[in-house]
Amino acid sequence: MASTLVETVNINLEDFSESFLTCATCLCTYDQEKRKAKLLPCSHTVCLRCLERMAQMAQVLETGVMRCPMCREMAMLPAGGVVSFPSSFLINQLLDLMQKQRRDVVPNCSVHQQEQLLYCEACDLVFCLHCDAPSTRSCSEHTVVPFSIAIKRMSEIVVFKAKQCVASLNTAAANVECETIQLDKNVDKIVDELNSSFQEVSQLVENRRRELLDSVRVMRDQKRKVLRDQMEMIDAHRKRLERELESCQVDVREMGARTKRVMAATEESLTLTEPRENAFLKLHIQPNTLLQEMEKCLSQFGAISGSTTFPGQCIVELNDSASVHTETRLLLTTFDVDGKRRSGGGDPVKAEVCKSTTTGPNDEEPIKAVIRDNDNGTYTILFRVCESGEYVARVTIFGRSIKNSPFPVSVSAHHSPKWQFGSFGSGSNQLNQPVKICQDPKGYMYILDTGNNRIKLLDGSGEFIDDIRSVALKGASTVGMAILPSGDILTLNWRTKEVTKCNHIGDPLQVTFLCLPPRSGGGDPVKAEVCKSTTTGPNDEEPIKAVIRDNDNGTYTILFRVCESGEYVARVTIFGRSIKNSPFPVSVSAHHSPKWQFGSFGSGSNQLNQPVKICQDPKGYMYILDTGNNRIKLLDGSGEFIDDIRSVALKGASTVGMAILPSGDILTLNWRTKEVTKCNHIGDPLQTMSFSEFTEPIDICADSRGRLLIADTACAKVFVFDAAFRPLFSFDVSAHCDSSPITCVCVGLNDEILVGTCSSLLLFDGGGRFIREIPLSASPQRSRIMAAACAVCPTTGNVIVAVVDSKKNRAHLAVCQYKGSFMFSMDSYGSRLRRPCGLCIGTHKWAGMCFVVDSATHSIKAYQFK
């Protein structure tokens, strides 16, 4: 292959300058000062000095016309003189170019003076083309350029690299300066924290010193007061004796009395001889122990740590495959500036993960990543994503990116197993129909290898240890296994119906046979299915699910629920054989008849007059507020009358609200007197409360925290009081119900508040903040539906509402989900509600039912809703 010779054209600098950059008149080189190149109209160029000389000629001065010295073409002299001629742009450009260009040296061969030296780029060799040297023969197949061009290229490369190095050094200097500034800031911050901490310690010491000084002064003042009082008593006795001594003339008749006084004073003075208080004060301290403990505490208080981590050497890697919805683990390994692996932690590592994009910056919120310090120079970065795709993890230490940040992470939608054990066979690492695996508290794994009649024991790393064999694992029919805290193993054999307890090596410890004696009257394999009755042929519809409840007395309760009225049949079998009257016809009505009813108009024991509320206490007793008769009727758990509770709080036939407290006390609300009264179980008033903001209170209830909720229909507010009748807060509901009047209030789940109005049922949280509206019908009919009363079933979470349709003037029960969706309505064709005003969820015997107070028919009715 022939060599490649790159030909170039070299221009002699002196020839170029003489030909293009020299004035043709004076043969002087153009410059930017006295010999500026001026362009004449004929396009010839003359220097400024020559033009000035030509302009001084007498002919030019007379005519104002001068001739070009090269082509003799006439040119008008400008008004400003020869200086006004335009400058030659091309000549000036060439002058600037020649000044910027360096003068290249063209090296020639020492033997052949007219031949330039050549340069082989592959061999890095300078040679002459005409010199037949052995060292140059290998260059025949390489790229060869003139040595002058090579020198120029090398010079340019060196200059470029030098500039790059200078720029990198400038950047490095700026980074080091920034790090130095940050170091000073961190030191100042630590110094401030230390000063603040030690100032607090000093303040504690000073406070303790002042406390001790104050206690010393207090004790001193107390002792001084006692001694001062004693000194005053001594002075008083001394003055009294001195007065006795001053009177020398003593009446004989007073001598005895005076002697007695002096003797008494002497005895009193003897009691004052001893100070009644002592000067003993002692400071109980252990200075050596205190100083040692303080020195120990101070030596353990605070520590300054640094780091030799160099972010540019640190790398992050993916430990395992990444999948959606599970934790992805990245391992960050730190190194120092010399590339040595670090063995400590504590670095301020930060990481953020975001979706990889190729179109531009990602505006999505970064995914939260958790940094776990392993205290060995490595850090585990954990994050979880919900969508498969390409992600990037940006990791920084000290605010600087690590070596391979951003790190690409590919998250798959598939989940590959992280570990796998076994294949078909009977070897150490083989299995045959394994059915169970358990792990004990020590981490050992037990695999029930049913087909091989053994239990395989693996260590915490999943490595095989041993096979556990036992007589309990016979017949390839062991289907269950459990590990007890003691380490014993329980196995279940379906064929022998045995539960065997073995020790850790498989020796049986206890065997239990699953042959349970039949329970009296129960235990039969009863099965039932319910489907719609048809007369045209077999029914292809899916049978309705039925629940069998064994009553343990020879009877079974079959429960099912349908959503459409009509004729159904229930097919019941025992031991797979139909019972006598199977299939059993069941007629399901669209109406809901009451399961129980109490009361009629009157004032007798079983009669009511405009009842408004019903409550049930934790024992199952029922309380009916019989407003028209000014009494509360008490019924037992079966609905039988017990007694009438009468009270002065039930006066004027205006009691509209009632609630039963867990203590058994009764709360009543009177709309006319605007009073809330707490009575005991026999009606004696215990406490009465009236609130100035009440306008027309209509309903009351109490939540699990003892708070009282009182609804006022006139001002459309719900007032909340504590158990001591102290007002807590109130909230207005008019904004959420188009200023419709309030009709009732009750307690929801988690002490939330349900408020019924003449147009809707509203749900508020325990603080009175609106949550949502609960629909009362399948279609939106807000303006015509009134929630007269409501209650919440705590077991099902359903809301039962007594609803009045104002357009049809008809009342019924609506069952809704607590989360806000309508389920179904309950109406009774033969015993319809007329004016429901109170509702209560039944308990004990009445579970699954609700009691409804119908004021128009003066009765209480129980309906099944579950």
TrEMBL record:
<comment type="similarity">
    <text>Belongs to the TRIM/RBCC family.</text>
</comment>
<dbReference type="InterPro" id="IPR001841">
    <property type="entry name" value="Znf_RING"/>
</dbReference>
<feature type="coiled-coil region">
    <location>
        <begin position="224"/>
        <end position="258"/>
    </location>
</feature>
<protein>
    <submittedName>
        <fullName>Tripartite motif-containing protein 2</fullName>
    </submittedName>
</protein>
<dbReference type="InterPro" id="IPR000315">
    <property type="entry name" value="Znf_B-box"/>
</dbReference>
<dbReference type="GO" id="GO:0005654">
    <property type="term" value="C:nucleoplasm"/>
</dbReference>
<dbReference type="InterPro" id="IPR017868">
    <property type="entry name" value="Filamin/ABP280_repeat-like"/>
</dbReference>
<keyword id="KW-0862">Zinc</keyword>
<dbReference type="GO" id="GO:0008270">
    <property type="term" value="F:zinc ion binding"/>
</dbReference>
<dbReference type="InterPro" id="IPR001258">
    <property type="entry name" value="NHL_repeat"/>
</dbReference>
<keyword id="KW-0677">Repeat</keyword>
<feature type="repeat" description="Filamin">
    <location>
        <begin position="505"/>
        <end position="588"/>
    </location>
</feature>
<dbReference type="InterPro" id="IPR013083">
    <property type="entry name" value="Znf_RING/FYVE/PHD"/>
</dbReference>
<keyword id="KW-0479">Metal-binding</keyword>
<keyword id="KW-0863">Zinc-finger</keyword>
<feature type="repeat" description="NHL">
    <location>
        <begin position="597"/>
        <end position="638"/>
    </location>
</feature>
<feature type="domain" description="B box-type">
    <location>
        <begin position="109"/>
        <end position="147"/>
    </location>
</feature>
<dbReference type="InterPro" id="IPR013783">
    <property type="entry name" value="Ig-like_fold"/>
</dbReference>
<dbReference type="InterPro" id="IPR011042">
    <property type="entry name" value="6-blade_b-propeller_TolB-like"/>
</dbReference>
<dbReference type="InterPro" id="IPR047153">
    <property type="entry name" value="TRIM45/56/19-like"/>
</dbReference>
<keyword id="KW-0175">Coiled coil</keyword>
<feature type="domain" description="RING-type">
    <location>
        <begin position="23"/>
        <end position="72"/>
    </location>
</feature>
<dbReference type="Pfam" id="PF00630">
    <property type="entry name" value="Filamin"/>
</dbReference>
<feature type="repeat" description="NHL">
    <location>
        <begin position="420"/>
        <end position="461"/>
    </location>
</feature>
<dbReference type="GO" id="GO:0061630">
    <property type="term" value="F:ubiquitin protein ligase activity"/>
</dbReference>
<dbReference type="InterPro" id="IPR014756">
    <property type="entry name" value="Ig_E-set"/>
</dbReference>
<feature type="repeat" description="Filamin">
    <location>
        <begin position="333"/>
        <end position="411"/>
    </location>
</feature>
<dbReference type="InterPro" id="IPR017907">
    <property type="entry name" value="Znf_RING_CS"/>
</dbReference>
<dbReference type="InterPro" id="IPR001298">
    <property type="entry name" value="Filamin/ABP280_rpt"/>
</dbReference>
